[in-house]
Specification:
The protein is α+β, with helices and mostly antiparallel strands and about 600 residues long. It has four domains: about 1-170, 2-Layer Sandwich (Beta-Lactamase), CATH 3.30.450; about 190-325, GAF domain (Beta-Lactamase); about 355-480, Reverse transcriptase/Diguanylate cyclase domain (Alpha-Beta Plaits, 2-Layer Sandwich), CATH 3.30.70.270; about 490-575, PucR C-terminal helix-turn-helix domain (Arc Repressor Mutant, subunit A, Orthogonal Bundle). The protein has helices at about 1-20, 25-40, 80-85, 145-190, 195-210, 235-240, 245-260, 300-340, 345-355, 380-395, 420-435, 450-465, 480-485, 495-510, 515-525, 530-535, 540-555, 565-575, and strands at about 45-50, 55-60, 75, 90-95, 115-125, 130-135, 215-220, 225-230, 265, 270-280, 285-295, 360-370, 400, 405-410, 435-440, 470-475. The strands form three sheets. It has a six-stranded antiparallel beta sheet, sandwiched between helices. It has a five-stranded antiparallel beta sheet with strand order 8-7-11-10-9, with helices on both faces. Strand 9 (about 265) and strand 10 form a beta hairpin. Helix 5 runs antiparallel to helix 8 (about 300-340).
Amino acid sequence: MAQDRVRQENETLYKVIKTVSSSLALDRVLDGIVEIATDATGCHACFVYFVEGDRLELRAASPLYAHLVGEIGWGLDEGLTGWVVRTKTPEFIREDAMKDPRMKYVPEIDEERFQSMVAVPVLSKAGDVIGVIVLHTQAPREFDHDVLNFLVHTASLVGGAIENAQLYGEARRRVDALTGLSQLSQSLASVTLREDLHDAVTRGARQLLGADACQIWRLDHEADELVLAAADPPDATEADARPGRAALLLELLRRDRADRAGTLRRQVSDDVRLLVAPLVVGEEQLGMLCCLARGRAFSEEQADLLRAVANQTAVGLKKAELIERLTAENIVKDMFEALAAGSVAAAEAKAGEARCDLSRPHAFVHVERARGDADGPPWPDLAGRAQARLRRLYRRAFFDSRHDSLRALVPFPAGGGDGLEQLARSCDEIGRELGIELGLSGVDRGASSARRRMREAADASRIGRSLAGGGGAILYEQLGAYRYLVHMELEEAPHDRYGQAVEALIDYDSRRGAQLVETLERYLAARCSVTASARALYIHPNTVRQRLERIGQVTGLDLRTADLLSLELALKVARLHHAGEPATPGTPGSRTRA
C-alpha cells in the first residue's frame, strides 16, 4: 500500500515536471498544473493566484471557474491567500472554512460551498512569494503531510516554470517591442510630409503600446498653449481633446521644461491613464506625444518605448518642417523671379501656391548692406536679422534672400491708409540699427506692374546707399530727379562743361574740406534763392554769396546765364556715382526720411 502511494506520488510529480518543462507558454503550464493538482488531491476546485504589485490576481482555475481568470483579485492584506503571501508558509483549514477570520468571501467562486481549503505559496529563486496555489473541497477534509509535501514540491516546480515563462515572455515582449519600434522608425524615416508623419506616429504608437488612443499636441509658443494636431483614432479628438486635457498636458510640459522629467504617467480619472512624452529637439520644445489607456496602467517598458517614439517624432517633425520651409522658399523664390521677369501668369500661379494674395495692396522692399559696412557681420546674418524684424511686424510678408540682397513683398492691412508710411518708418528704424539700406516701392496691386515696382525698390535702395550710406530707408517717390538718373553710368553722362565744372567742385571740396558742392545743390534746389539756401544750410546769406562767388571762380561758370537744369542734372549724376564721398544729411539728394 505504501509502495503504491509512493509510486503514485512519483508519477504525479513526473507529470508536473513534464508539464512545466513542456512549454514556455505560461497559461498552458498553469492549466496543466491545475488539472494535475485536482486529480492528485481529489479536490473540487483549484486556483492559482499571482502576486501583481500589491494585489493578488487569479491567473488559472478549474474549468468551472476558468471564466473568472483575470477578473477577480484582492489586496495582499486580505484573505487566507494574502496571509500565506505575508507569512510565506502553507496553511489549511479542515472544516467550516468561512468561519476562519482570515477568509475573504468571494461570491463568484461559491466559497460558501467549500468546507476545507489549503493554500501553498509559490516561491521564486530569490525566495519571494510570486503566487499561491489554493485547493478547495466541499466536504471537510484533513490535508495530511504527504499532500502538503506534494503541493510544496509542485509549487517549487511551478515557481521555476513561472519565472522561466515570465523571462521568456519579457524577452518576447522586448523583441516584439523592438521589432515594432524598428518598423515604426523605418516608417517615420520615409515620411516627408507633416500630415503623413502625424498619421504614422499616432497610429504606430497606439499599436506599439496597445493604447486606446494616441495624440500629438503642438506647442503654440506665442500663445503658450497646446493645440491638438493629430489623433488616432480620429474620433478620439471629440472625447479626449477637452480644454482640461490641454491644460493638464501644458502643466506637464512646463514641469518637463523645469526638471526634464522625461516620460510622465498620470491618472486623470477613475478609468483613464495618460502616458506622455515631450517632443524636444535640442533645446526647442515642440509639444507632447500622448497615449491614453482605459482601465489599466502603462508599464515602465511602455514609457521607454513612448520616449523613443517621441524622440524620433520630434526629429521627424523638424525634418518635415524644414522640407516644407525649403519647398515654400523655392516657391516664393520662383514667384519673385516671375514677378521680376514680368511673367504675369507664372507669377500668379506661384503666388497661389505660396498663398500670396497679389490683389491685396502691398509694397516691395529691397535691402542691401549699407555703404562703408564691409567689415560688419556677414551678409546672411544681416539679411536673416532684417527678415526676422520685418516678419515680426508683418507676419504675412514674403521674402527672397539672395547672395547680396534681400527682397520682400509686404501686404498691408485691409483699410490701412497709411500702410506705406508706417512701413517706411519701421524700415528706417531697422536700417539705422542694423546698418542696412532699405528701398521701398510705391503701393501696388496685382502682378502686371510688379516688375516696375520691384525695380523702384531696388533703385531706392541703390540711391540711398550711394547718397547717404549710413543705413536707413528711402521711398522711391521721394527720390526726385535721381529716379531718372539712377541707371545712367557716369561714363555715359555728357562730358560737357557742366560735368567738368561739377568734377572741379568735387575735387576742390576734397582738397580744401570746403562745402561748395553742398552749397550749389541747395542753391539750385531753392530756385536760386540766397535767403532760402542760407536758411537750409544754417549759415548767413553773405556766406552763401561768398561761396557762390568761389563756385564761379572754380568752375568758370556764370550762374546768372548758365543752363541751370543741365548743371543740376550733372551735379546729381556726379553725386550719385561718387559713393565714396560722404553726403550731408538733409541736403537735396541725401536721404529723405519718411
